[in-house]
Write a structure and sequence with these properties.
Strand order of the largest sheet of chain A: 3-9-8-5-6
Strand content of chain A: over 45%
Number of domains of chain B: 1
Distance between the termini of chain B: 30 Å
Helix content of chain B: 55-70%
Distance between the termini of chain A: 46 Å
Number of strands of chain A: 9
Number of strands of chain B: 3
Oligomer: heterodimer
Strand order of the largest sheet of chain B: 1-3-2
Order of helices and strands of chain A: HEEEEEEEEE
CATH superfamily of one domain in chain A: Cupredoxins -  blue copper proteins
């Protein structure tokens, strides 16, 4: 049984180290900055392709997001937030405001027309 | 605002790297600690096994849960849920407000796991297919079903029906539209009823994806049955040890684990950028997703079979080993399901409850939950969530390794106890670390 005790001691020590290590390194809830500038994401549709196509965008909690869409054909964008948002764009340049993101997490911005994920907003 | 399709919006932030490293180190240490501990005890001639494998009898409770009234009660509950499904499937609107999507992908598919862990074989008790088959059998009168399911088929059909559901959930692009979901569920029910009438209840036990998943998870609950069918309380590991090797069991656990891993991986930026490359046509991308859905379970099965077969030394029949040790993957799957779906189950489950109260979007409030705000508890307690995730994965890993050891000690010759188990151990550590890495990367 001494072996069991030793194993438990080692595990406990590792847990302790892990807790200490993570306590200082993990500031998940960032304070919403006073700076109210929205994060602007440039999106370019041409034919069947979209640029970017799967990039991660960092968004500080509380900041708004604006999509700067340039397209050669009209279409629709979905944002998987709660409630889900959906916005149409036309040919040329369209500015879409998605409002502020107050809940940390990852949100996919998707082209409904192409069925592709354009960017993932990483709100933290 | 235009109404969109589908369930679930917010996804968790990736697991912090420190948690992944701490978890991986812990998994490695615990694994080798257990290896040393069990082999040392076995070498000293002590019996290494589960406590009270027969279980503690609970005859009074057994009489209640086996009474016709109790069985009928849960069948009625199952039929009521089924009736609600039919209602929203045909009368509900084809948008995200329809609760059918959340009920199928969140309540049913994810909810099976916690409910089966706590209450045992829940889906078996409420399965509408089972009730309908029982009614049809009763109408037909006494006698055996017309056909017999070959014993060597085992769980193989369930591996394919589980894959079929995973395909709908993870690959099929129109899975958030009412038509396809309704069609999938209708075909599922038709096949189950037809099979149940032709082959008897054995068919549902072996082919119904939800029942197989639920009953497999229930092996980790405290509720067990003796050979004679009496209700007993067992330790989860003791209960898991009663799962005997059956053909197709390895396939089922590989499909379950492989598809959940694919679910994690398909959302990672690496995968998204790869399948959405502008030079790749939509058809090719769809084909690749289909191949990946099959490739992930195959990879899991390949690694697992290799690791377990290498475990055999001496005269041990190597080919029997994957089947013998397959139950040890069940806790690893459950641990990963908890880590991957906890916040999704909480948030999307609550959102579904909200939608279910007003299924037609006309302002009605059937269950009093129509105005309930969705709680983002886990989004705001990211550290707690991360700790729960790592703890779930590690707990699953420890139970899996322990269960594998108990089995391995029964089949390995004493002189190869330590060396023989190392490949197996490395495989399980590989699964756990891989799972943790995906929680970090995706």
């Amino acid at each position: 049984m001494r072996l069991t005790a030793r194993i438990i001691a080692v595990v406990a020590a590792i847990c302790g180290i892990a807790c200490v290590a993570t306590a200082c390194g993990n500031d998940v809830a960032t304070e919403p900055s006073k700076d109210s500038d929205p994060v602007v994401v440039g999106i370019n549709f041409s034919g069947d392709s979209v640029d970017p196509h799967g990039t991660q965008i960092d968004v500080p909690v509380g900041h708004g997001v604006e999509l700067d869409v340039t397209a050669d054909a009209a279409g629709e964008i979905h944002v998987h937030s709660d409630p889900e948002q959906s916005a149409a764009y036309g040919v040329g340049t369209t500015r879409i405001s998605l409002g502020a993101f107050d809940i940390p997490g990852q949100y996919e911005v998707e082209s409904h027309t192409l069925g592709k994920t354009i960017v993932t907003l990483e709100v933290k | 605002m235009i109404l969109t399709h589908g369930v679930g919006g917010r996804q968790d932030l990736p697991l912090p790297l420190e948690y992944v490293i701490a978890g991986a180190v812990l998994a490695l240490l615990v694994s080798f600690g257990l290896l040393v501990l069990t082999t040392k005890r076995a070498a000293e001639g002590q019996v290494v096994g589960v406590r009270n494998p027969r279980g503690w009898p609970v005859p009074r409770l057994g009489r209640v849960v086996d009474s016709p009234a109790w069985i009928a009660l849960w069948r009625v509950v199952g039929l009521l849920i089924f009736a609600y499904f039919v209602l929203v499937a045909f009368a509900g609107s084809d948008n995200a407000n329809n609760p059918i999507f959340g009920m199928t992908y969140v309540w049913l598919w994810v909810g099976l796991v916690p409910f089966s862990l706590i209450f045992g074989r829940v889906f078996r008790a409420i399965s509408p297919a089972r009730t309908i088959v029982a009614a049809l059998t009763w109408l037909r009168g006494a006698g055996d079903p017309p056909l017999r399911l070959p014993e060597r088929l085992g769980y193989w059909p369930a591996a394919f029906t589980l894959l079929a559901f995973a395909w709908l959930e993870l690959v099929y692009p129109e899975n958030n539209y009412l038509g396809p979901v309704r069609l999938w569920l209708a075909v599922y029910l038709a096949v189950m009823i037809l099979g149940g009438v032709l082959f008897g209840e054995k068919f549902l036990e072996r082919c119904d994806p939800f029942e197989v998943y639920s009953s497999l998870t229930a092996r980790l609950s405290v509720w067990g049955r003796t050979q004679a069918g009496n209700l007993v309380l067992r330790t989860p590991l003791g209960n898991l040890d009663t799962l005997r090797p059956t053909p197709g069991l390895v396939a089922v656990v590989s499909v379950l684990f492989g598809t959940i891993v694919y679910d994690s991986y398909r959302e990672s930026p690496t995968w998204l950028q790869f399948v959405q490359n502008p030079e790749m046509s939509a058809n090719t991308a769809y084909l690749i997703s289909n191949v990946a859905l099959i490739a992930f379970p195959l990879l899991v099965a390949g690694f697992y079979c290799l690791g377990t077969m290498l475990t055999g030394v001496g005269d041990v029949p190597r080919r029997a080993l994957p089947g013998e040790l397959a139950p040890s993957l069940v806790p690893i799957i459950v641990g990963y399901v908890v880590a991957h779906y906890l916040s999704y189950f909480w948030e999307s489950g609550l959102a579904t409850l909200r939608n279910a109260s007003d299924p037609f979007g006309n302002g009605s409030d059937w269950f009093g939950t129509a105005d309930m705000p969705v709680s983002y508890f886990f989004a705001f307690h990211a550290t707690l969530l991360a700790v729960i995730k790592v703890a779930a994965v590690i707990t699953g890993h420890v139970l899996g390794v322990w269960s594998a050891h108990i089995r391995a000690l029964q089949v390995l010759p004493p002189q190869h106890l330590v060396t023989g188990q190392i490949p197996l151990l490395l495989t399980m550590v590989g699964f756990t670390v891989g799972g943790l890495y995906l929680l970090f990367a995706a």
